[in-house]
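Q&A log
Question type: sequence-to-structure
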Amino acid sequence: MELTMTKACLGVAVILCGTCVAADTAVIEGNMLKNPGFEDGKTAWNVWWNGYAIDETVAHTGKKSLVLTALPAEKEAVKNKPYGAFQTVVLNQQKPGPFVVGLWAKTSNLQILKKDIGDEGSWARLRLFITFQDETVICNETGKNNPVFFVTAPTMDWAYTERTFVFEKPVKSVACFIQLFHCAGTIWLDDLLFALE
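Response status: OK
Response body:
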């Protein structure tokens, strides 16, 4: 499967744990996510904690994107609650096989409010919860199968990151969580990708 994306790829050093790709056109074929570019608003994306919004003025392609905005914790109406959305992709693999996950992200005045980035710190990320056919689950993994895409750049234009996953066991489903916690500022996501390789 050939994947080519629009826009120059900016912020390579600050999109962690992924491969940055730049090209001239956008082709997303075989995408298993529903409404990956948010052109149908909130269709297919579930609310997580404080939820999320659809921005009709900022987009990578089309006219809409998903946006998460947070104020510093002391100004938040609902303290210590994250923002986000999620969608589950059912694979039902009978044998292990590769799949690709990618996303476009843009930030404005993003501030990491905790000392660390990760579960005990600040999150601005796409995180995968991977359930295998034997019902075991991973959401933390080191190396090439790291299921967490962190975004840390304070302000950047649209940048793309992508990763290919291959596990030793067949995958039943993957829950894709977009999350913002212990941060201030704004992050937009658009044109997400989940496809078999």
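Response note: Residues 12-196 form a domain with the Jelly Rolls fold (CATH 2.60.120.260).
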